[in-house]
Amino acid sequence: MAFRAFYALPVDNFATSTGQHTNAVHGFISMLLKLIAEEKPSHIAVAFDVGSETFRTREYSEYKGTRDKAPEEFPSQIPLIKEVLDALRIRHLEVPDFEADDIVATLKTEAEDESFDEVLICSGDRDTLQLVTETTTVLYPTKGVSVLTRFTPQAVEDKYGVPPARYPELAALVGETSDNLPGVPGVGPKTAAKWIAQYDGLTNIIARADEIGGKAGQSFRDNIDNVLRNRKLNHLLTDMDLAVSLPDLVTEPVNREAVHGVFDALEFTTLRERVFAMLPADSAAPDQDESTELSFDIASWADDGDLAAFLQAHADGEDAQRIALVLDDGATDVERLALATRTHALVLELAALPAGEDAVLAAFLSGPAPKTAHDAKSMWHRLTERGYDLKSVVFDTDIAAYLIHPDQRRHTLVDLAQRYLDRDVASDAAASGQLAFDLESDATIDTLARQALAVAELEVQLTGALEDRGLSHLMTKLELPVQRILQDMEATGIAVSETVFNELYDQLDADVKQAADDAYAAIGQEINLSSPKQLQKVLFEDLDMPKTKRTKTGWTTDAEALSDLFEKTAHPFLAALLAHRDRIKLRQIVETLRSARAADGRIHTTFQQTVAATGRLSSTDPNLQNIPARSEDGLRIREAFVVGEGYETLMTVDYSQIEMRIMAHLSQDAGLIEAFREGEDLHNYVGARVFDVPIDEVTAQMRSRVKAMSYGLAYGLSSFGLSRQLGIEVGEAKALMDDYFDRFGGVRDYLRTVVEQARRTGYTETMFGRRRYLPDLTSDNRQRRDMAERAALNAPIQGSAADIIKIAMIAIEDALEREKLDSRMLLQVHDELVLEIAPGELKRVEALVREHMAGAAKLDVPLDVSVGLGPSWREAGH
DNA sequence: CAAATCACGTA
DNA sequence: CGTACGTGATTTGC
After folding, report:
1. A672-701 in b/e burial notation, b at 16+ Cβ within 10 A?
2. Model confidence over A78-118: pLDDT tens digits?
3. Most distant CA pair in chain A: distance in Å?
4. What CATH fold (topology level) applies to the domain A285-469?
5. Is the CB of A238 less than 7 A from some atom of nucleic acid strand B?
6. Distance of C1' in C14 from CA in A533, Å
7. Which CATH superfamily is domain A2-260 in?
8. Strand C: which bases are under 7 Å from protein Cβ?
9. Fewer beta carbons under 10 A from the terminal one: N or C of chain A?
């Protein structure tokens, strides 16, 4: 049926944005849903073939031998169909060495033995017609997969002239070209049916073969072997030993979350709607009608005592519940806070809160009562502005959704409510009349209440989803504690020197103008040097320079290509352009940072905790994780980040080569582990092994080559990429890789295993169980697949490093608190922390930071930590 | 006016 | 034809 669906729908019209073809999936599932809607089965199963070898091919090696290989767009769709079936909670069966038809025949037989009223078989294989009885009907696709013909005993007889049980005899005589089973030449369905009727079956036909006259009779006698073989092969097994029995096949509610997941990946929208329209789902959210029955208390915020009463009813005593919190979007100047359990909501207008209520609220927010929020870090910041402190957040729906689907960069509350609760809590839902009831009060209040109710309910759903994936620990022990730390880091910020920024800016600004003038002079015209389009015209049309690497819209003008062109042409425009690029970039960075300086003289970045697919943090507004660190001028920018007033010094502490150490640990490669244990310079050590020379004879070139190699490995570098990076021939790069893997075979084996396992399970895992799903690993688009493979190589390594530094941050924060130190963390830059050290605390902080960084994870190699000190980030850096 | 493209900074 | 990010200027497309 899947194959039929493949040919019924145009393959080019069904593909995801990543290039995965989905026409067979769509056609198959569409057909299946229609079937379920019309037939309403009590039990259901789908059977698949496994591979091409079965007991039949061993019996007769040419069986199905003339079949063309399936088109390349087809095979990758089969696992996708199975994923959808899993989400729909429909069992699918496959047994090595047997065909799907045998499974179908066995189940049908069991069902009839159990006196089921009716059995329906949907199959595109005519061999199943032998299974038709008074209770069993075959639905055979006639036009694509949209029209199914019902083969009852009468219908079989009408069409083929034999009763269903005799159909295989007819097929044996006629043969089946698609299975490469020749029958009797000259005998078609009409003759075969006539003989079967006349002699009462194949056995008798064979016994009385001599009596059959004419050409056809002779042909039959010459081909009896074919017929016997055909009959043997087209007999379906009805007594297979299946792992499941009929009670396992009872129809079940669909797994709502899984359906969303798989249909998101497949980019199916109409089918998703059809599924939810027709099938019951497990986590059925109260629908709109039921919502009206919720005890939906919306307090009049002017009344004193409502909050206290609400908290007493829901947050106190033995059956205290989690309180979900939602703050309005801040678009207007009113700030409203909604509190909710799964059934009760209360909305407060903060500015209008009576003093008594305000005190109750403040005590509740900062008190021990457990709370749930969506993006609690933002909420904390906003509540802090209003003078409240938010504590005891024990669940965050944003973080939970991120742990479950780290690749989805967006998981807003509205998205989550739609996906997990099938509920629209968008702020315009009320206005657009989608809500079932309309309170007299403001629609915003209604929306906030609904959102808070949704958060409360999402916690239950997401807690289950986290548990299913073994992610609960990461939530409670890692991400939530890290969230609180980031909150403080963001609030603290890092001090910057306005003077340094101003001086830098003026210098760079002059440089920019000079470089621009030089560039204009070199080409005799003024163009926009920041416009790749205009640059292309000048370089490749006016100056007719050799073409560089292609981009989507033309030829690249990136720094590497421009340097290349400069070597070839020595044109002064290129030098001026490169200088201009460099200066303008730095000037822009300085300007961004200068304007990000807050009234307290510090820059307060925002750390994104739910964005990077590997588990890393990212930094925005401004990004303090990409401050220049290499060039001299870049480093001057770091001079502007300084120790704040009242503090003694900045401290940076970083892990050296943490990703390579994780690679050593995960791969268990003996050579690599030894390299780190020896404490030798890693790249010299590896170079000595790869080039087979004593360690003190490793040249600078050897060292830089193995260094590029080592790092490239963790990212899935190809020999092509390596050759380009090192400026050597592909063959030489290939040889280098081979030598490397000869010496460090454990690394090669590990990398292979990682990809293989990810392809099997659908996800990679860090040392601490953080997952990343990579559905593209089975894509039939090579570019997509290769990209997913490289991501699979990198994710466990980059992700484990991210986990480790998060663990270290928690331990450091704990220690600072425990020892009542005033020193504090300011920034995290993936493998580095920046701290501000309070007077007199240097020694103790350095000791505890070293201890907790190095001790964050127990690897089979040491975690090396280095510490730097200084009045600015530049001097504290390494 | 928003999205896409290009370029480039970090680990 | 290594991974993971964020920002800004220009261009494209509606």
Report:
1. bbebbeeeeebbbbbbbbbbeeeeeebeee
2. 989 999 999 999 999 999 999 999 999 999 999 999 999 99
3. 114
4. Nucleotidyltransferase; domain 5 (3.30.420)
5. no
6. 21
7. 5'-nuclease (3.40.50.1010)
8. 1-12
9. C
